Structure formats: C-alpha cells, structure tokens
Amino acid sequence: MNLIEVMERFPDQEACIAHLERIRWGNKPVCPHCGSIEVAHKNETQEKDKTGRTGRYNCHACQASFKVTCGTVFHGTKIPLQKWFVAIALILNAKKSLSSYQLSRDLQLNQKTAWYILTRIRAEMANKTNPIVLQGIIEADETYIGGKPRKPNKREDFEPSKRGRGTDKTAVIGAVERGGQVVAEVAKGLTGRAILEFIRRVVNVRESELMTDEYHAYNALSSQMKHEVINHQVQFVDGDTHTNTIEGFWSLLKRAWYGQHHHYSVEYTPLYVAERCYVYNNRHRETIFWKFIRQSMILPKENNYSE
Ligand SMILES: [Zn+2]
C-alpha cells in the first residue's frame, strides 16, 4: 500500500474504525474488560458533538466504556487513525527508515507526536514478530551502531571514526539465511558463549552451514555445526564462502541510522533494529500493510485495559 492507496481506502476516522472493528470482532463487539457481548454504541452524534470522537461503546455488564483500539498499538490515541495508517505504510515502504522529523512534516504533526507514533509502531513490530529459526546457508556477523548517549556533550562516545570491536557503541549481532530472513538484535555480549547462545536460538544448527569471518568468538560454533570461515585479512569472497548478505543488511541498517537517527538515544536501538528486521523480512510481501493491521488487532486474552 502506498500513501494514496491508504488515503483512498481509509478516507476518514469512520472508515478506519469500521475496518479495525471488522478484524477484531466481526459483527459482534465484545467488551475487552469483561468479555460481555451486552454492549451498545454510545450515541454517536452526542459523542461526536462532545468530544469529536467516534466508535465508543458502553458495556451493560460491567458499565465500562471502550473502543476497538482498546489495548492495541492505537490505544488511547487522539491522533486520527488515518495518520497512523499512513505512518505504518510509510515506515513499511521506507528503504532507509523514517525520522520523526520527516514523519512530522509528512503528517503535519509535531515532532514529539511523530516520534511517539514511530516508537509505538516499532514496538509493535518487535512484539508481533514470532520467533524465527533460520535454516540453510547462514551468515552470522556483528556490527556496531552509534546511539547518542543520554547525557549531551559526550560526542567522543559515538565518534564515527571509532569502528569495530571494542568501541563504546551498541553491538548488534545478526544471522541471515541466504535468500531468506534475518534475525538481528542488540547483543548482550560478543563472547564465544553469547554468540553460541544466539546462534543456537535462531539457527537450526543441525541442518545449516554457518559462514562467519575470522573473529575468534565464532570458534565455539565449529564443534556444533558446519562452519566456514572467510578470513577478511586475506579476501572477502572465496567461492560460496562469504558474508556479503549480512554485510548488505548491516549497510542498510547503518545507512538508515546515520541518515535519520543520529539523535536517538541508545535506549531505542533495539526497537530500531527490530523495525529494520521486520521490513527486511517482509520485503517481498505486498500485503504487509494488511498483515500489520491484522496483527495489531490480535491481543493476549487476559488483558484488562482502561481507555
Ligand atoms: Zn464489560
């Protein structure tokens, strides 16, 4: 879905609500607080006149009131859902991610609001990604991205010229299946043990062959699975032995980071990495917008939200 398609399909708040209600409830709204179906629309005209909002229900069983967005990524928002939907489409289509400044201009929101929307969407991407197990020819590698330290005036902490292992930047570890999906996350450490834990969690080690560079921490893997090493001191490609796929993902990740996110706190690095994985892993899926919206309406059962 591109911008125009989203705006045509969802011209107003009512269209967005109707779509979400259909996904979440079909034709029968259910109270998210108590599970009752003894619910009724609040008087729309009255409601609209009073607050400019629509889509609120009253529950006769527990007396609570609720909306279809209750407990979802859109929970409690005062921003029109159309803007959320456009933001989702923009982020899914952005090759190099999206800054809150760009989004604030695109959607005529202030930057803080745009940042809030982006962060919520990223968190949703992180939360709704099922565990992935890679299989086949797997390339593993690690990289560093610089986040701004929370205290200002400490530029040396993220000096771009300081590169490679042993810097103060955030270490990210990743594995990619050639022609398939990627898993990347902020690394707890880059020791042999941490890398082993990561690979065993995200790769089917019995059915896969691993390609890495010569970094010694990967040696721990050689006893666990087929493992080819490309020595980058000597060459970058040796027949099928290379790590170009994961390097390609890193360059996308970093280009986006340095182009858009240099003012971010390191605290949000995991969400940013999750976003880039989500977009990469759905790069061939034309229906990803619909999938995202559909997943946003799937909630754990026991939640009890007030809105
Ligand atoms: Zn209820």
Short description:
It is elongated, with a radius of gyration of 23 Å. With 307 residues, the protein is an alpha+beta fold.
Written as H for each helix and E for each strand, in order along the chain, the element string is HHEHEEHHHEEEHEEEEHHH
How many separate structural domains?
2
Number of helices: 10
Overall pLDDT metric: 85
Radius of gyration: 23 Å
Bound molecules: zinc ion
Number of strands: 10
User: Shape from CA axes?
Assistant: elongated
The biggest sheet, with number of strands, parallel, antiparallel or mixed sense and barrel status, is: 5 strands, mixed
What amount of the residues lies in strands?
5-15%
Describe the protein's topology.
Elements: H1 3-9, H2 13-25, E1 39-41, H3 44-51, E2 57-59, E3 65-66, H4 81-93, H5 100-107, H6 111-127, E4 137-145, E5 170-177, E6 182-186, H7 192-202, E7 209-213, E8 226-230, E9 237-238, E10 241-242, H8 244-260, H9 269-281, H10 288-296
Parallel strand pairs: 4-7, 7-8
Antiparallel strand pairs: 1-2, 2-3, 4-5, 5-6, 9-10
Helix pairs in contact: 4-10, 5-6, 6-9
Bound molecules: zinc ion.
Commentary on this structure:
The chain has 307 residues and is α+β, with helices and mostly antiparallel strands. The protein folds into 2 domains: 3-128 and 287-296, no CATH class; 137-264, Nucleotidyltransferase, domain 5 (2-Layer Sandwich). Helix content is 38%, strand content 14%. The protein contains 10 helices and 10 strands. It has helices spanning 3-9, 13-25, 44-51, 81-93, 100-107, 111-127, 192-202, 244-260, 269-281, 288-296; strands spanning 39-41, 57-59, 65-66, 137-145, 170-177, 182-186, 209-213, 226-230, 237-238, 241-242. Strand 5 and strand 6 form a beta hairpin. Helix 4 (81-93) packs across helix 10, helix 5 crosses helix 6 (111-127) and helix 6 crosses helix 9 (269-281). The longest helix has 17 residues, at 111-127. It starts with a helix and ends in an 11-residue tail after the last helix. The structure holds zinc ion. Zinc ion (ZN) is lined by residues 31, 33-34, 36, 59, 61-62, 64.
